Amino acid sequence: MAACGLDFGTSNTTLGIGAGDRPVLVPLEGTHRTLPSAIFFAPGREAQIGRAAIEAYVEGTPGRLMRALKSVLGSALIEETTPVGRERIRFRDVIARYLTLVKARGEAEAGVDLDTVVHGRPVHFVDNDPAGDRKAEDTLRQIAESIGFRHVRFQYEPIAAALEYERMVTSEEIALIADIGGGTSDFSIVRLSPERHRRDERADDILANDGIRIGGTDFDRNLSLGAVMPLLGLGSPMKRADLSVPNAYFHDLATWSSINRLYNSKTLREIDEVVRDAARPELVTRLRTVVEAERGHSLAMAVEGAKIAASDAGTGTVDLEWVESGLAAAVDRGRLAGHTEDLARRMAQRIDRCLAQAGLSADRIDALFLTGGSTGLPHVRAALTACVPTARVVDGDTFGSVGLGLTLEAARLAA
User: Does the reported pTM lie above 0.85?
Assistant: First the structure.
């Protein structure tokens, strides 16, 4: 039995193999261990994934880019079809095509056929909907089986991160694991030690587990709606008194998984009508430019880049020169926090719920282990650390901790 750990994330994917206590994430694109969760369909060509998919789109190759694929799990979209060239395919089949290529690359690196997978999953695919949550896991299981995995197991992503962190601990401690990914934020409180790490059954060591469907793409969305979409007409008035420009177009354009909905002639005709009736038609004309050129993903990537720049360096810019000469949106840390502080607050509330679930006070937490890209946002980090102010803060492998933990569990299954 050849087993792997597969962290299919909203933003990035990793695949790991290994034996015993030595997990390894294999390169999935050149020397890169992480693969952007993106797929590009070009007419008459095989689908491209990862950075190559994004590059093909940015270079203007005719075709269809899809990102944040995982976010449709648990939603009605999973069974819907989307146009790809001259055919329409279901979103679940898009995910299957992406994961088929990921599996093939992992097998090429490992030199063996992989028949067993430990799949990572968020604590909740869907908030407050147990039936939807079960459906999402069942769908992902069916996809995994359809692409050749005979044995499929699931592990909560924060628990997987805890297994990876536990390799570093030298004595028993209680750790709060915070995994802030692209689509979800997941938290676990776990009792860890070198001795416990060798046990196969760890249910008694999991003291609390919770999560919320908020992640990095939601920060992108809120920042886009707050700082960029007003430049394209969001919130601007119509000629008719007391009416504003319809906001559905802007919400779709700001949401990674919904961007492609706009790319059809019907939407363009509707936007033309809005331009005609808008009090400031020049703003809505910019929206039309983006939609007609099918550059929504370019806009989303620019927003994501400005978010990262503002987080790391204090300031960032969304360059919209290609929409209109001289057009840009400036973003700094204050503006980023202002547009997304509610998301950080809601994440922190889940930590309070975990503490209550575990029956622990905040000062009983020895370590706060952080993983996932959005833990780098200063106001998110501040919100999380404020919940357990006496805990030691440990930064994990930002994009690899979950995958490494899943690989540890896969190695145990294969032993």
Answer: yes
CATH of domain 3-170+396-414: 3.30.420.40
User: For residue range 97-135, what is the model confidence (pLDDT) as tens digits?
Assistant: 999 999 999 999 989 999 999 999 999 998 888 998 999
Burial of residue 251 (number of CB atoms within 10 Å: 0-12, 13-18, 19+): middle
Q: What residue ranges do the domains of the chain occupy?
A: 3-170+396-414, 217-335
Residues 13-29 have pLDDT tens digits of 999 998 666 889 999 99
**DSSP reduced 3-state for 186:** strand
288 pLDDT band (50/70/90 cuts)?
very high
DSSP string, 354-373: HHHHHT--GGG--EEEEESG
Decide if 337 contacts 241 (C-beta within 8 A). no
Two tokens at 64? 């269809």
CA angle 162, 167, 170 (to 5 degrees): 110
Helix axes 51-58, 296-313, angle to 10 degrees: 120
The strand pair at 87-90 and 81-84 is best described as: antiparallel
CA distances from 31 to 11, 398, 400 (A): 18, 17, 14
Distance CA 157, CA 332 (A): 31
With tokens 């805990």, the residue in question is 391
Q: Which amino acid is at 303?
A: V
Please name every residue paired with 392 in a beta bridge, in sequence order, or none if there are none: 367
